[in-house]
Specification:
This protein is an all-alpha fold. About 75% of the residues lie in helices and about 0% in strands. It is built from 6 helices and no strands.
Length: about 130
């Protein structure tokens, strides 16, 4: 007696997972540029707002620190994949696909707030306080 196979009209979990991951990659990777643009605008905005003092704090270590923070921000951005794929595998896939921009907005806002606090500390003129 052989094992019953998957129902012919229902895709396997692996094929559903493949489809959800592919869809998540297509959605989130196109928006990563805007996410990074928002964070870069905050950094450059605070740099410009604190001129000429900003130039006194720019160093190799400072630039490497900002690079490290940029990489960590992009690692955090990837957390959206976990939630996105999870919801896509549920029964809420179709309604979620029209609303996941909310996760993008909340995540970008959260990252922008964190970025703001870091760059205020980085570019702030301590002598002026």
């Amino acid at each position: 007696m052989s094992e019953p196979g998957p129902e012919p009209d229902r895709p396997s979990f692996v094929s559903r997972l493949h489809e959800a991951v592919t869809d998540a990659l297509a959605y989130w990777e196109r928006r990563r540029i805007a996410y990074n643009g928002v964070l870069a605008a905050i950094v450059f905005g605070y740099f410009a707002a604190n001129l000429p003092h900003s130039w006194t704090v720019v160093s190799v270590d400072g630039v490497l620190f900002l690079f490290l923070l940029a990489v960590l921000a992009n690692v955090c951005y990837c957390a959206a994949y976990v939630g996105d794929v999870f919801v896509q595998l549920s029964g809420f896939r179709e309604s979620w696909k029209g609303r996941r921009w909310i996760l993008l907005l909340i995540g970008t806002t959260f990252a922008a707030v964190i970025t703001r606090f870091f760059v205020i500390g980085f570019f702030a003129d301590r002598a002026a306080r």
